[in-house]
């Protein structure tokens, strides 16, 4: 059996009882490190928080390892119970679908244990989930690579009065350019896009495209560390949010569409004065 | 402190460790019964599954009670810790926002403990969450009331190649017409829309509106009892799905937009032969 277990958004205590049972029953436990394990105790002192709770070792699996060792993980899962832990919900990101597809193709039983992810926990800011249009991703711009396909999507959502959830880029274990040139593996330090960077990139694209999809006056909600004890939510114009110190990652941003009175009442609590 | 705790989708074991801690620390525990508590043991023998796990009594709060006794719940929360439990995630539905707003207005600390909801767990069918457009609700049609505002939304999503999540109507504790006439409270038995009813209503609206938003050949995914042990997922045309016995509620339906190869691979596992 391959258990794919969502860990939720906060820390080790956000696993469900069902998820913990699966981990306890498993002979091998992997945790994906594609995205961010910031608050799960995966710091310099290793996996202490998760391993302490589970009472067994946890293997951190980055994308490379999952790709290279997928056969091994699947072969283990065909003989005994293996748990593959994922931050948020197992299907919040595309990255785990491939492992599930391969397991199913091999006839290995797969059991998914759900949890909260940004895609539903974002409801905490008070904007109703069924009033969101397509979600967009904002990638880090570089000197030569400034993809802006999010622009049309935001424009469409706003024309329809819908809110837009902007997921901000995370770069974990990116090979450094230098290391690629030298042919050995060396990694850039992890990089998490801030709300400030996202807003600056958004405004830069609006200035170029001039489609009036949004402006510096457009109402937004910035959320830092969603689902964590020290979560911060601030509502205001893009300009207002540039003045807010959101602190440590992860950040995400909502561009607000048309609002209903009950949504307005909730946003009022988070308004930047 | 008012804890708003998501219970997840399956049964009592889908609460998180953090959620369980909040319940154990609370002097009063309410569970909302607006939507559906089918699998949480809230049957004829009462709250056995939840109460057994929590080691304390749980008060079932229907919408009427929350509206009538909100002041009491909030006054309790201003003096001690009160847990308000919600199926799925606290902000999956609009119904709890009002309680949160009132608590915050009274200066009562509110802590939200997230969990999975249909809005993210639907990812299990293999269609990527960021490729969904606006979510629609399909209400039960009556002889005289056949609202079809979902039609334009589905049409727009399909024009954009996006998937559409259709939430199917749930009628719990609806006053019966007879009881309204007689001025005393009597309720209809709970009613949950099936995938079959939803598809028949959708096709009826398409036949009237003739906008080619979808047809009986449109690819869909039907999901019954999402997140439960006996969850059933079936992919096929609307006609195909009319032949599937989805069994007990809750049901939901996805109308598929344009698909990527990895989405196709996952749908293949659920295809109706």
TrEMBL record, chains A, B:
EC numbers on record: 2.1.1.314
Pathway: Protein modification; peptidyl-diphthamide biosynthesis
Keywords of the record: Methyltransferase, S-adenosyl-L-methionine, Transferase
Swiss-Prot/TrEMBL catalytic activity: 2-[(3S)-amino-3-carboxypropyl]-L-histidyl-[translation elongation factor 2] + 4 S-adenosyl-L-methionine = diphthine methyl ester-[translation elongation factor 2] + 4 S-adenosyl-L-homocysteine + 3 H(+)
Pfam families: TP_methylase
Residue positions binding S-adenosyl-L-methionine: 9, 89, 92, 117-118, 168, 226, 251
Keyword Nucleotide-binding assigned: no
GO terms (BP aspect): methylation; protein histidyl modification to diphthamide
Residues annotated as domain Tetrapyrrole methylase: 1-240
Domain of life assignment: Eukaryota
Molecular function terms from GO: diphthine methyl ester synthase activity
Job description of the protein: S-adenosyl-L-methionine-dependent methyltransferase that catalyzes four methylations of the modified target histidine residue in translation elongation factor 2 (EF-2), to form an intermediate called diphthine methyl ester. The four successive methylation reactions represent the second step of diphthamide biosynthesis.
HAMAP family assigned to the protein according to its UniProt record, in alphabetical order: Diphthine_synth
Family, as annotated: Belongs to the diphthine synthase family.
PANTHER family on file: DIPHTHINE METHYL ESTER SYNTHASE, DIPHTHINE SYNTHASE
Protein name (Swiss-Prot/TrEMBL): diphthine methyl ester synthase
The organism of origin for this protein: Dioscorea cayennensis subsp. rotundata
Classification of source organism: Eukaryota, Viridiplantae, Streptophyta, Embryophyta, Tracheophyta
